[in-house]
Write a structure and sequence with these properties.
Length: 189
């Protein structure tokens, strides 16, 4: 005899709640890097976990939960970004990116086991990258994922991740050349 439907639903709800608790900070950091604003990141997290709950049956294994959730967040962001562009809305004003990113990154660093300490000028350069390159750089270079996980999250081959990462790094070198020379990073590199 099978379990009553309410017991099955309770087990499903508890399993998803455990998953959401375990990966909330990862999803929030990823959302923050995409949106560049704490409130928008919180909204994107909420949307991600709502979509994840609805599609919880699609999750193949607990081992793939993190990249699965990050992919849901990325897809939700892309949808929001495209809708805003179609309406002609300015999405994030460049002059407030550094101020918002600095405050947001320091808030996340307190919760994170591996704090992200990035100078405002570096963060602004990362934020100025086109979305595809910014995603690759933040996922891999900021220590969040491996190439394989990034490929899963971005739904593209590892070679594409590597290509985007290379082009993103090249753009960053160009944008941060003077800053690197002034701070002594150019001599160390």
């Amino acid at each position: 005899m099978g379990c009553p439907a309410s017991t099955t639903q309770a087990v499903r709800n508890n399993a998803f709640a455990e998953l959401a608790t375990r990966f909330y900070s990862d999803v929030f950091r990823h959302s923050l890097r995409l949106t560049r604003h704490v409130q928008d990141a919180e909204d994107l997290c909420q949307e991600t976990f709502l979509r994840g709950f609805v599609r919880f049956g699609d999750l193949e294994s607990a081992d793939s939960a993190r990249p699965w959730l990050l992919r849901i967040a990325t897809n939700a962001f892309i949808g929001l970004y495209r809708r805003a562009r179609r309406r002609g809305e300015e999405i994030w004003a460049p002059e407030d990116v550094v101020e918002r990113a600095d405050g947001a990154v320091s808030a996340v660093a307190q919760e994170s086991p591996a704090p992200i300490l990035v100078h405002g000028e570096v963060m602004a350069a990362v934020e100025s990258l086109p979305v595809a390159f910014r995603e690759a750089v933040t996922l891999v270079d900021m220590g969040e994922t491996s190439y394989e996980e990034a490929a899963t999250i971005l739904s593209c081959p590892i070679g594409t991740v590597m290509s985007r990462l290379s082009r993103g790094r090249t753009m960053l070198r160009g944008r941060l050349g003077r800053y690197a020379a002034e701070t002594g990073w150019a001599a160390a590199a």
